[in-house]
């Protein structure tokens, strides 16, 4: 074949094949570049990351998750590789994934290094409560880049934003309410979630105010601090409420009776995943908005 014809007809296809084989290169939140070629076996660490993969149509590629990834229902049946914040490197490697996806707060650096030492790429996303809605968009787009599904990502982001717009337009009575998110393992221990946390962004999206907005991040709970905040409503995870004995058990916690929320017995239960921001965030914000408007 003449050289000129080779460059005109053959070389473009050679280059196209080379680019396809090269796959995608994505820089993770840990500043580590990850090169992948259409991964088919995924292990995902972090429940909101798992939900996001399903929302993007990639759920059928997941072969394992952390123990906390239980939604959608099919995710609960997948092999588990340990605690949401302390996954087993050996368990992950045994599933022979061609990509591990985890948030920066769910995968210790040493564990990530152990997995990479087994020649398995690890894509680290930003923490699932980082930067609120904007953080969720960045995580969606990072995942999409790795799988070359940018169009699906933009559709998911559009769905997410439209859900939030509906809430904002209907937030009336709940707008001025001060909501205190209570996270507790028992009557003697708990945590306060201030600004820059998942519950803070949820409360704001619902049209209310975080009673703990004077606190940055997550701090140890004290009844004195909560009483000073004078919340109108107490927001608790469903499993926390169950562990405390339901609404009556929550109301018995020290100091709650001295707040408007305690006096009016206003305790609102919410899904266990709201400490992170995932695809169902608009749904949970609407749920809270509706509860506050009653």
UniProtKB/TrEMBL annotation:
It comes from Pseudobdellovibrio exovorus JSS. Gene3D superfamilies: Nitrogenase molybdenum iron protein domain. Residues 41-294 form the Fe/B12 periplasmic-binding domain. Keywords: Signal. This is Fe/B12 periplasmic-binding domain-containing protein. The keyword Signal applies. Residues 1-23 form the signal peptide.
């Amino acid at each position: 074949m003449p050289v000129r014809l080779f460059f005109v007809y053959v070389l473009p296809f050679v280059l196209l094949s080379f680019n396809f084989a090269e796959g995608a290169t994505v820089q993770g939140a840990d500043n580590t570049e990850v090169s992948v070629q259409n991964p088919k076996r995924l292990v995902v660490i972090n429940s909101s990351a798992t939900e996001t993969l399903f929302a993007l149509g990639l759920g059928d590629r997941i072969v394992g998750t952390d123990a906390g990834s239980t939604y959608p229902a099919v995710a609960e049946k997948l092999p588990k590789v340990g605690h949401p914040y302390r996954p087993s490197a050996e368990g992950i490697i045994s599933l022979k994934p061609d990509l591990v996806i985890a948030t920066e707060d769910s995968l210790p650096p040493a564990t990530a290094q152990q997995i990479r030492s087994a020649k398995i790429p690890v894509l680290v996303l930003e923490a699932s409560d980082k930067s609120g809605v904007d953080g969720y968009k960045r995580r969606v787009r990072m995942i999409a880049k790795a799988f070359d599904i940018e169009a699906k990502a933009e559709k998911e982001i559009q769905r997410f934003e439209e859900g939030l717009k509906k809430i904002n337009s209907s937030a009336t009575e709940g707008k001025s309410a001060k909501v205190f998110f209570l996270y507790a393992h028992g009557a003697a221990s708990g945590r306060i979630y201030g600004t820059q946390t998942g519950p803070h962004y949820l409360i704001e999206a619902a049209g209310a105010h975080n009673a703990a907005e004077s606190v940055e991040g997550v701090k140890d709970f004290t009844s004195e601090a909560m009483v000073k905040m004078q919340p109108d409503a107490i927001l608790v995870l469903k499993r926390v409420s169950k562990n405390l004995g339901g609404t009556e058990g929550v109301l018995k916690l020290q100091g709650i009776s001295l707040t408007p929320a305690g006096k009016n017995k206003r305790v609102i239960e919410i899904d266990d995943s709201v400490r992170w921001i995932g695809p169902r965030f608009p749904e949970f914000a609407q749920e809270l908005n509706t509860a506050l408007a009653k």
